[in-house]
Protein 1
Amino acid sequence: MNKNSTRPLEEAPAAPPLNDLARTVRRESLRMVHRAGLGHPGGDLSAADILVALYFGALQVDPRRPNAPERDRFIMSKGHCSASLYATLALKGFFPWEELKDYMQPLSRLNGHPSRTGVPGVEASTGPLGHGLPIAVGAALAAKMDRASWRTFVLTGDGELQEGSNWEAIMAAAHYQLDRLVAIVDRNGLQQGAPTESTIRLEPLADRFRAFGWAVREINGHDFAELSSAFQAAPFAPGRPSCVIARTTKGKGVSFIEDRVEWHHHVPSDAELSAALRELGDDLDA
Amino acid sequence: MPEHFDCRDAFAQTLERLAEQDPRIVAVVNDAIGSTRLGLFLKGFPERLVNVGIAEQNMVGIGAGLANGGKIPFVCAASCFLTSRALEQIKVDVAYSQANVKLCGMASGLAYGQLGPTHHSIEDLAWTRVIANLTVIVPADPSETAQAVRAAAQMDGPVFLRLSRMPVPSVHPPEYRFRMGAAVVLKPGRDVTLIANGTMVCRALEAAALMAKEGVSARVINMASLSPLDRDAILDAAETTGAIVTIEEHSVRGGLGGAVAEVAASACPVPMRMLGVRGFAPTGDVEWLLEHFGLTPSAIRQAALELLEAKVRQ
C-alpha cells in the first residue's frame, strides 16, 4: 500500500486524492461485510478503484438530483459487490455515510444486492449476472433516440461474461453503434470457485469484443491515471461502443486477500478485519 | 356468426396512435415485426422501433434500460419466448425494479396449434401473476385490447399484456370502459358463475346462452385483470351463485383458476371446476386442441351443469 499517503481526509485542502477515497471505500466495504456477516469482499476490493474513478471523475451525476434526465448512467452489473457500490455512493453524497452500518440489517434499504427503487443513485436492480449490459444498451439507445449527450457506463465482472445475455447485448450495442456506451470489465481473473480460465475460458477477451464490433482498451484497473484517461477518452472510435478491460486483482489492497479465490465471499474474522484495516491505513478514519 | 377480429390489429393501431401523441412510446421486438403487426409502427417511427434480433433476455433488459432513459417501451414477442426465456429479466429488471416497461406476449395460449408445445404459452399467466409489482392483463376483444394498451401506457409501472392471434367477436357493449383491477359482469346470473378471460370470454358467453335455454341462470365474468385481481367480484359470485367455473386458454394449474380458487378458498369456499389445458398438448390445430381440452361452449356448459349437481348435493 501507499505508505506515504496517511494524511487525514479532513485536513485535505481540496478534494482528497482518488487513492484515499478508494482506500476509504475498501475499508468501509470490509467493515460492512464484517458487520453483516455476509458479502463479497474480494470483488468489492477489486472494483473499488473503478468505482471511485467513475464517481469522482468521469460520471456527470449530481447526488442532489439522482433522477436528473441528463445524468450519466452507471449500472453495476456485478451487483453482489454492493458494499463497495454503497460506500462509493455514500461517499459521493447520495445518502448518509452513517447508513452504511445498516448494510443488510432488517428493513435496511441497503440490501445485499442493490435495488433501483430503494437506493438513490442505483440505476438498476442487479444481482443475477448478465443483466447489466442489456439494461445499459437500452439506456444508451434511449439517449441515442433523444440525441442526448449523456453517457452510459456499466461494470461487469469477468466471470459474469459467461452469461449469454451479455453477448446478445454486445452484439446489439455494436449493431446500433452505441458509441456513448462504455462497458468496463473488472478483469480480476477469478470467479466464485476458481480462475475464469480454468472454469470457462474468456480469453482472448479483447479480441472477442473487437470481433463483435467494439473498440477496446486494456488498462491497469488500479491505476487512476489509466482509468480516468480511458473513461474520458471514450468513445475510443466513432460509431463503436467502448470496452475497458480493467486488469484488476481480486481483493486488491490487502495482502492476505489479494488473488485468493476463497475471499470471493469469505467474511473476515475480527482479527482479519483489524489486520486488513491496518494495511488499508485505518488511521484515516479515526 | 358475428364478425371476428384479430386483436393484434387493435393492439398495433392503438400503439401507433399512442406513439403519435407521446414521443416516449417505443417498441422493442425480437425479429417478429410481422407477427406483432408492427409493420406500420416501423414505417411511421423507424427510429423508435428497436429490433434486438432473436434475443429475448437482451430484449427485456433493453426495455428496462429504455425505461431508465425515460422511454415507455412496449416489448413485444411471442408469449412463449418472452415469458419463459426472459423470466428472470421480467422478475428483476422489470417487476422488482418497478421499471415502466410494457411486456406484450403475443400468440399466447394454444394459438400456435400444431406447431406444438414448444410454441404454446400455457404457463405464462402462472409465471407472471405470482411476480410482485407486475400488472397482468388478458383482454378479451378488440375494444378491451385497445383500452388495455392505453391504460398500460398511462400507468407508471410494469405491465404484462397477454394477447392472442385467435380471432374473437366483440364481447363488450360500445360504452364499456376497461379498468385495471376490475372484473366486469357481462351477463348476470344466480345459479353458477363462469369466470373467463381472453379468448375464452366469448365461449363462456355462448355457454351461458345455451344454459339459459335450459332454464339455468349463469353469470359470466370477464376477469381481464388477473393481477391485481378483483376479489370482490369473485366473493360476490361465490356468495350469490355458490358455484364457479373458470375457463382459460392456459394450464389448469396456477392461472386464472388458481387465482380465483385462492380467493374463494380463503374467504368463501364453493364448489369449483377449472377448465383449461392439462399437460403438454398433443398435435392438433388450435380449434381441435380447444375441443380436445373441453374449451368449447358445449363442454363449458356440460362442466357447469355437472358442477350445479355437485352444488345441489352439498
Protein 2
Amino acid sequence: MTESVKKRQSGIRPVTETSLKGRKAPRKEAHEKAFFGMIWAVAGLTLAVLFLILGFILVKGVPHITWTFLSKEPEALGAEGGIFSVIVGTLAVTVLAVLISTPIGVAGAVYFSEYSKGGRIIKIIRFFTEVLAGIPSIIFGLFGFAFFVVYMQMGWSVIAGALTLTLMILPTIVRTTEEALKTVPMSYREGSLSLGATKWYTIKKVVLPCCKGGILTGVILGVGRAIGETAALMLTIGGSLNIPTSLFSSTRTIALHLYMLASEGISDDKTYACAALLIMIVLLINTAANRIGRNISK
Amino acid sequence: MISNVKTTNDLAFKIRDLNLHYGDFHALKDIDIDIPRHKVTALIGPSGCGKSTFLRTLDRMQDTVEGAKVEGEILFDGEDIYSKECDVTDLRKKVGMVFQRPNPFPKTIYENLVYGPKVHGITDKKRLDEIVERTLKEVALWDETKDRLHTSALGMSGGQQQRLCIARCLAVEPEVILMDEPTSALDPVATAKIEGLLHDLSGKYTVVIVTHNMQQAGRVSDQTAFFLLGELLEVNSTEKIFSAPDNKKTEEYISGRFG
C-alpha cells in the first residue's frame, strides 16, 4: 500500500463522518418529523370531523331531549309531543330481529365451520352470504315489501320489518361467529370427544361457550345496523305513530321517524333530538359490547 | 371356545391385519398386536412411523381426520370397534385419551373433572364431588388444588394441567388409557411426576403410551412395540426389547443409530 493511498483513505473517513453528522442525519430526522407531523395532522383531521358531527348533532339535539320527549306520544305527525311510541317500535323491531337472527346465524355458522366438509355448495352459499352483506339496504326493503308484506300478507308490520332486518344482519352474525369458532383450538374438541361426548355435546358445552364473546360482538354489530336502518324499514313497517299492539301492527323506528321529520320538514328540533338520541344509543351499545366482550374473554 | 374366553380376559385389545390409508398414503401396514390388560404398552419409533396414528385408531379418534380409511380388525373386549354396532361414545368412555399437549377446557378445575361424568349422565352433586376428590387424589393433585377447585384450570402449570387431564380421563372410569407423548411438552420434574403416576396406574388400568423417549419406554412399560414406516417390526417384553431384541432394526434404533 502506497503512502498516497493511505492518505486518501484516512482522508475519506472524516468526510463521511461529517456528512453523516452534518448533512444526512438531519435530513433523515427532518423526513421523520415531516411524516410524523403529517400523520398527526391527518389523525387530528379525522378526529376533528368526528367531533364536529357529534358536537353539532348533540348541541342541536340534546336540549330537546326532555322527559316529555321520551315519555309522550307524538302529536301532529311528530311536530308536537314526544316519541314514546317510536321508541317502543324501535325496541320491538330490533329485539325481534335479533331474537330471530341470532339462533339462525349461530346455527348456520356452526354448520359451515363444524359440520360441512367445505364442498362446492358450501363455497357458493358462503359467497352469497358475503354478497348479501354488501347489498344496499333499500334492496332488502324492496324484497321485504314484495315477499313479507305483499306475498306473505303480513302487511306493513313489526314482523315484516323484523324479518327484513334479520336478512340484513344474518351475514354479520354468521361471519363473526364463524371467526370465533375458528379460534377454538382443536385440542378442546378432541379432549371432549375422547371423553365420550358426541360432536353436538362438544359444540354445545365446550366450543360455543368459548365463542360467547365473538357471538355477542356479531349480535351487537347486528343491533347497530338494525337500529340505524331506514331504507329497509320504510317499505316494510309502514310508519304508524301508534304504539304497536301486536306483531302485525304498523310501527315506526327512531331512524325512520328522523327521516320522516326531516324530509317532510315537520320539526327541526325534534329531528335533531332524534338524531342525538340515536347517537347516544349507538355509543351506549358499543361501550356495553366492549365491556361485555372484555369480561367474557377474561 | 375356552381359549377364546381366556384371551378376552387377558387382552384388552387384539388387533389383526390393521391397515390405514390417508388418501394414497399407506400409514399403517398389516399391524398384528395384542395389548395385555392392566399392563403398560409403550409404542416407540421415529417420527412419522405411524405410532400416534395407531394409538388414535384404538379409540377411533382417527375418525375425526378426514380421508382416513381403516381396514382390518381391532377387537376390544372381544368386540370389533370398527363394526357398525359399536357405539363410539361408549367406546371412548372405556378407552380414554391423554394428549401430547395438556388440553384442559377453559373452565374451572372442578368443571373439567365433572365434564366426562356429566356426559354420561351423572348429575348428582355428591357423586360428582366424590369423583373430583377421588380422581385428583389418584393423580396426586388433591393437596395442590383442593382450595382452588373453582378457579380456572388454565391458571395451573403445564405439569399440573397434564395431571388434571389424566384425572379428567380417569373421571369416566375408563378401562384403557391411551397416552400420546404425554410428557413431551413438560419439564423433567413434571415428567418424573407423570411417570410415577403411570407406575401407580398400571395394574389398575391398561395403558398404551406413545413416547419418543427410549428411557421413558424402558422405565414405565411392560411391553414395547417398535414401529417403523408404518410397519410394526417387533413386539416384545420391554426387558427383551432393550436387552436382546429379535429385530436388527430395533436394536439399531434403540442404540441410537437412527431415528
